[in-house]
Write a structure and sequence with these properties.
This protein is of the alpha+beta class. It has 11 helices and 18 strands.
Length: 378
């Protein structure tokens, strides 16, 4: 593996707006995280991996499971799911479904997302897995597949249970997965109210009801043990941030700390484009190919989010096995970009071959081998 330091200073990168130096920042939340989307760079974290009671914020996982089933064509939004007596009797926040009714999936999703209905969660859990307990086990297994290593689910709603936990990092990662995988359903999180059974309920997300620019989701939570928490996302001028706060004492604290954290992310950090998707990063030598070199490209746009103070210490290195051996197909990963900067840690981005390379003729392979041997001899 060869490592190449790239001449990729930010002086040559387009800056899309003014940047300011990062200042010291803290929050009274017991746990919090702010990440840049889609790079998922962590811009701020406090106790990010501490397993905590998530309360209704864990309904993000319940909705994720429904979204997947819809996306795979196993359910449709018009499917009607049976309401059991257990769902009807469920306490806490409710959608107010009636036992024996069959409720459309699209209404149940709004009941879960907008109204935070515990009863709606049980309806979809029983429809998917037979029992709420079996559904919770499915949630935990799927969470592991997604890399949510500090999440364990014991029910579908976030109802208090000492073993039902999530970390704020897992919640932020899950929110990013929902945004990335299910854009067709994400607008449900921006809905400010929903009426079911002639009962209109407002979204519990305080940032949706106020004047915080760009906020379009996601979910609040509150129990006595969990305190007040919020998973939120906002997009401004093409930049999306995701935040989670947890363990606050009052709804007012939740709103203020979430807004402060968002404003800090937009004020103190700026996004820069290092490479556009498909842009050639370097020409790599080819071994036994029908061409002498091949472009190595970024498969997607490569952006980095930095404070002004961190820009001068940005390092971008390209690592790959050289020469690239032919034949090889465009899009094949052959190395990685290693991006290092203060405050945001290390990050790697795959690098792929930009064009097909065929195998050289017999004469060409012999000539390449001869040149290699001569080079070794010198």
């Amino acid at each position: 593996m060869r490592l190449f330091a790239l001449a990729c200073c930010l002086a040559a990168v387009v800056v899309t707006g003014p940047a300011r130096a990062q200042t010291d920042f803290d929050t009274i939340a017991e746990a919090a995280i702010l990440i840049d989307y889609p790079s998922r760079q962590v811009l701020y974290a406090k106790n990010p991996d501490e397993p905590r009671p998530p309360a209704s914020m864990s309904k993000l996982m319940t909705a994720f499971m429904v979204f997947e089933r819809l996306d795979q064509g196993q359910w449709s939004l018009d499917d009607r799911l049976l309401v059991s007596e257990k769902a009807w009797r469920m306490g806490g926040s409710k959608m107010f479904v009636e036992v024996g009714d069959r409720v459309p999936v699209q209404d149940l999703l709004r009941g879960i997302i907008v109204q935070s209905g515990n009863d709606a969660c049980i309806v979809v859990a029983e429809a998917m897995a037979g029992t709420e307990g079996a559904f919770a086990r499915q949630m935990t297994a799927r969470a592991r597949d997604l890399g949510l290593d500090h999440s364990v689910f014991k029910n579908a709603s976030g109802w208090p249970d000492p073993e039902h936990v999530m970390s704020v990092r897992d919640l932020a990662h899950l929110a990013a997965e929902i945004i990335a995988r299910f854009p067709q359903f994400y607008d449900l999180y921006s809905q400010k109210s929903f009426t079911y059974a002639d009962i209109t309920q407002e979204s519990r997300n305080p940032l949706l009801q106020g004047d915080v620019a760009g906020v379009d989701g996601l979910k609040t939570g509150h129990t006595t043990n969990a305190g007040y928490g919020l998973v939120a996302s906002a997009e401004r001028d093409g930049r999306r941030l995701i935040l989670v706060v947890a363990g606050l004492d009052t709804p007012g604290q939740r709103r203020r700390e979430a807004e402060r954290l968002l404003e800090h992310g937009y004020r103190a950090f700026q996004s820069y484009e290092l490479f556009a998707g498909g842009e050639t990063i370097e020409e790599a030598p080819v071994w036994f190919g029908d061409r002498a070199s091949v472009p190595l490209v970024a498969g997607d746009d490569v952006d980095v989010t930095l404070s002004l103070a961190a820009r001068d210490d940005l390092e971008v290195d390209l690592a790959y096995d050289a020469p690239v051996r032919a034949p090889i197909v465009a899009g094949t990963p052959v190395g990685e970009l290693r991006i290092t900067a203060p405050e945001v840690g290390d990050r790697t981005v795959p690098v792929v071959v930009g064009t097909d390379v065929g195998r050289a003729s017999l004469f060409g392979r012999m000539w390449t081998a001869l040149r290699h041997l001569v080079g070794m001899g010198s």
